[in-house]
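User: Hi! I'm working on a homework problem where we have to compare a predicted structure to a textbook description. Could you give me the structure for the chain below?
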Amino acid sequence: MDKTVKIRAYTDDAKNDAPRGNLTEDQNITLELAKKNFRLEEELKSSREHLTTIEQLRGSLKQEQAKSAEMAKKTAELEARIRKYSALDANELAKKSALLEDEKRKSLEHIKMIEQLRENLRQEQAKAAEMEKKAAMWEFKTKELAALEVKVKELPALEAKVKDLLVWEAKAKELSEMLGKISSLAATGKAG
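Assistant: Happy to help. Predicted structure tokens:
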């Protein structure tokens, strides 16, 4: 059983200065016991403070471990995402490179086709220009033929006029001959 003894508190100097010779053995034991109790209380107080600090440190450690675990989890997730996106990016890059090469090939084919079409267009334009020249020449010849056709249509009328002229010419010759005969008769009649 614990016995609590009330004693006056002394400073260490006062305790050391106290004459020990005057104290009885029980008082010495009580004094020693009081000192040990005081030290024990100090140690208990210090131990409680240390326990409180240890508990706080344990709590902080648990929080830090939880944070570290969370950070490790997030880091693992991010690394997994990065690996996934890297793989996707590599696949996407390969697909886009293939598409780009395909588009490049198609573009070259289209450029060749455009050049061929331009050349065909130039040839067709040259042919069209030649055809225009020929069309102009044929139009000119058609106009000449139309003029000739008009003249050909006028030929029967001209022929009739020529016939009339020939008839008149024949009549004029006859008249000339008659006049010549009349003149010669008249000249012979005057002479005779």
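For your comparison, note the following. The chain has a mean pLDDT of 84. The helical segments are 12-17, 25-191. Good luck with the assignment!
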